[in-house]
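Table S7 (text form). Paired inputs.
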Amino acid sequence: RSLEHKTRAILSAGLGFTEVMNYSFYGKDRLEKCGLDEKDHLKVLNCLSLDQSHMRTTLTPNLLANIAANARERTLIKIFEFGHTYKEVGEFMPLEEKRLTAAVAESGEAFYAAKGGLESFLKAFHVNAYELKPSTKILPYAHPKKSVDLIVKGKTIGVLFTVHPGVLKAFDIPQDVAMFSVDFAKLISF
């Protein structure tokens, strides 16, 4: 918990990001806008509304919805979220992971602002030996030419990417958006 507080302090006070908190589920419309496959999701049988029908496998769709809700009033948006993701793995319980995902939306090229935010965060978190290499697996909502894996001690623990223009159009976001996502449990294990 103290490392979560440290992370929040680094991102908020040090780097100017604002923390958001979203529900642990989203609707089929957000899932489809991001190009995610419904079969990888746990479906909520008695959901309260259609926008809460699937457990999230990534924090990205809800963060993009947060950006879309604020994009008309702000030219620069820097937000992050800590949260659990849930993946259907064919067992009694789903695979649950603690993720940290941050997003930068701006009128110019957002990739380098997100990269600078990630590198500053890693430096403040005392992770000095890391590599950024072209992604081996491109996420469905990531631009295929602007996606890199975050590798620490030979293990891929995260990804840095620009959101695909088609996804931005689906969410009606006029700015360029770049994000980084880190498996927090793996990050703190080093």
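Next pair, protein 2 of 2.
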Amino acid sequence: DVQELRIYNWGEFIDKSTISQFEKKFNAKVIHDEFNSNEQMYNKLQDGSKYDVLVPSDYMIQRLREEDLLQKIDYSKIPNYENVLPGLKNRQFDPTNEYSVPYFWGNVGILYNKNNVDMKDLEEQGWSILVNPKYKDRLYFYDSERDAFMVALKALGYSANSSDEKELKEAYDWLVMMLETMNPIYSMDDTMDNMYNGIKDLAVVYSGDATWVISENPDMDYYVPKEGTNNWIDGMVIPANAPNPDLAHEWINFMLEEGIAIMNTEEVGYTSPLQSVIDLMVEKDGTYEGISSYVTRQGYEKDEEFIFNESLKAIMSDL
């Protein structure tokens, strides 16, 4: 009998040919639905939709875990987990590694056109280049609540996880000022195509999107401000009400096979959780040789993971 596996993943986040390989290998039919924000994914779960594997970001994994919406993973069924970078384990969203397996990881930074943006401006102004009128009409900004507030809070010298109402109000004012002085375009996935085509000169992006654009358009490069940024991990989790948890474990293990992980990272541009794959990508003549965004900054004290905090979420949503 053909088994069914339901996946809910980000858009543009997988090499689709890996799906047909899995279907053949496990005599399965995979339904692969896509979301464009953690909040959209969360709301879909609330309306009763059932999935076997989700791929949320760290703070959303924390929220799902705290709300008892996840089941524990049986790591004995995921032998490839031992190849995952140690630095991606024991993180605060899943401190004892019981509920999640890393899929991709990276940070947030500024993708810029080297011909039209002055490197000196980037180094001196960091995130504040996004409110420099010199670059008016030349900016894409993520249409994402948490990332927007992270950029503003970091530009002001605060923690990305601040729940201080005064600091959040300052961040709000900063974002309003950006809107009023810079005329930014708020977008998500279409930012990549537009930057690849050189339509604007600056964009706030996830490192993996930068990697894809830079590999296609050498005029582009990536800068991570010294004020710090968000380091994120998107992980694979199994919902508490998953119809087919056994096949879900097979899928998670399959995604961590080296050959499959190579196909995914080459197609998508995001950084693999497997060190062996990272090494292959950045070596001489590797797909991402010389592309800084592929190798995420680690151990920098001003870089932070997002932490889920209900009251912070409420304040940010209102603002």
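The first strand starts at residue 3 and ends at 10.
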